[in-house]
Amino acid sequence: MPLVQPRHQRWRLVLAHAFLLLLCAAVLLPFLVVLSVSLRPGNFAATGSLWPAEISFEHWRYVLGLPVPGPDGTPVMPDLPVLRWLWNSVKVALASALVTLLLSTTAAYALARMRFAGKRQMLTALMLMQMFPAVLALVALYAIFDRLGAAFPAIGLNTHAALVLAYSGGIAAHVWTIKGYYEILPAEIEEAARVDGASGWQAFRLVLLPMAVPILVVVFLLAFIGAVIEYPVASVLLTQQDQLTLAVGSKLFVQEHNFRWGDFAAAALLSGAPITAVFLLAQRWMLSGLAAGGVKG
Amino acid sequence: MGPSRAGHGPARLVALLLALASLAAVVQVHRSGQTLLAVMLLVVTAAAGYTYGSTRTQALRYLFPGVAAALVFVVFPMLTTIGIGFTNASSSNLLDHARARQVLLEESTIRPGSARPFVLHREGGSLRVWLPPTDGRPGLLSEPWQGLPTAPQVLHEVATPAGQPLDLRDTVAQLDALRLLALQAPGGERLALLSLREMAEPQPLFAAGADGGLTHQLSGTTYRRDDAAGFYTSEAGDRLTPGYRVGVGLAHYERLFTDERFREPFLGVFVWTVVFAAASVALAAGLGLVLAVLLNWEPLQGKGAYRLVLFLPYAVPGFISILVFKGLFNQNLGEVNLVLDGLFGIRPAWFSDPTLARAMLLVVNVWLGFPYMMVLCSGLIKSIPADLYEASAVAGAGAWTNFRAITMPLILKPLTPLLISAFAFNFNNFVLVSLLTGGRPDQPDASTPVGTTDILVSYTWRIAFQDSGAQFGLASAISTVIFLLVAAVTLLQMRATRLADEAGPRR
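^ Those are the sequences you sent over. The predicted structure of the assembly is below.
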């Protein structure tokens, strides 16, 4: 580092801290407000203070599906099934992450270890596919699943299977990630296994895969989160209220004419906190040496 | 069954069963009228058969599942989108011609003067319908039935009914049975339920003519197939709904680029999309870069804590943060206006003033996007050799000179492709616009509803799935235009990546 005069430096440090603290406040305040709102009674009590004057758990009861006091004091069952949506999201995301993992581990193996005609083109095609988001093909996806549903109602519109299928196309980024990791693993061990008589499938399944477990966990988590937070495709394919995922259902809380700030705040914390934790975990593993030089693109 | 050799007996059996199941699925899809989809499935099945049947397909065995999924759920939808863009598909023209014609021919009406009152009678455990004599027509009594009637009930001429008449409430309780009921009169005509008190003789609304035209049975008007419009149309120009899907060639594209009333709002949306994407990237990257420089500054304490907090917006699910901001910015109840009201006595209308709505969109997007840029820039700055700074310190350069002469030039090249892909991402940032403003406030005078904060993808979504009659054809045409734009940006990005790889400091 350059030699800086201490007098200048002290002022600069103070300024830097002030700037950073201001930004941290801008980042944290929305979440603190949400926490406060979720504990306040009523759905539109903007009291002006961050600290709620009166603590009420009505919004938390609401999102947990417990009866809440209605306008006339009698208990009312919540009309928006938050826990159901959370379960839908988890279900779709688990299935989708599994499918993603199954499809991308084998594909990445071929791309990392095998030599075949058209490999370069296939890698380029994978990269290109990432650039075209599904949001551009929403009309077509809707039409395709509408028609598929005419033949097989189990994978038509308003089914979770349709969503999992639609997500299974988006494996390009994951293939790149896994391929990068395979490439930093030594190929010699598999070659030795082949010399000892293992088939290609056995070398992959019994030798390479066990070594690649860390990246498979990370990709599983990333695919899981990707499916949980996906909004456009889910919003088009799912319309029945009890089939919605959390990402689609949440917006029903903050509509122009039906603004339920408190209920939404509780729902956001309930669902946002675990997803954020999982994401931070996956990121941490990803950064901490796991991907040292492996992940690019 | 995984990429093992299909040599063993059980594996072969499973493969055979899978192939049979796929073929059955293909037949099923074809029977439901989806020829294109059936062909697609057949091709995939055949490719799977070849891949796992042949012994010469080593790599393909591992690639096939992933490639097939990508082809079916990414490439096929893209091609379908382009295809739909050349048709008139919309809520009124959703079916193909055969199905639409079938729907029209199944429409029925009441033969004029055939309606007559009825009374439901109960006799023991069974029900009968009694049609009292009216206008010189004799009284008719049906055979008794139990539960839900399965076959048409024959009517007999009688003078007096049998059994106990039911009142309206008990009749309503039998509505399921009455809906299914068909009555066969002695003269051969069929009667069916018209209302809770009347039975009538249904007849098809349209009769098919020898030339394929449809004649309305009540007015006598003939509607002829008009393949240019996709409707059955009368001489006077009246159309029958539903219409059917037909190709319209480049009509949507002509509308996009030449129709005055359409071009202007479309261009407005396009310009805002570019401004929004460029401004989002520039602001987020600027802030991220400043933070990266600060957080790589050795004398600064507490870097770890700052990094963790400032990374949060990237880690929290986007749909949650965006909806949180939607609440915070609410004009009357939101906390942002509460603070502004307290400090300056103003309550800006964030969601109904176009300029404010755009500003809000940018503020939220920068909040969402700067952590990613911070992490990227941080990584790039770390890869700059430290001896460069030591040399510049020896030469007596200050922090600003260091940044301008060393940091900036060295990270700009590798950063460029990443900035371009961030631009492409924000160009299609549907989630933000859709969840925060939904494109509103709307432009006051547009033929198709269009918002002042709409970007191209959210505009397309509105055309297809919101107001304005589900114009799938038009929406797909716009999607195709966006495809081309994104492809252009992608080419640019790949060029920049190549340049960065040739000159970049990394590896």
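Chain A touches chain B through 99 residues (CB under 8 Å). The CA atoms of residues 7 and 13 of chain A lie 10 Å apart.

Shout if you want it in another format.
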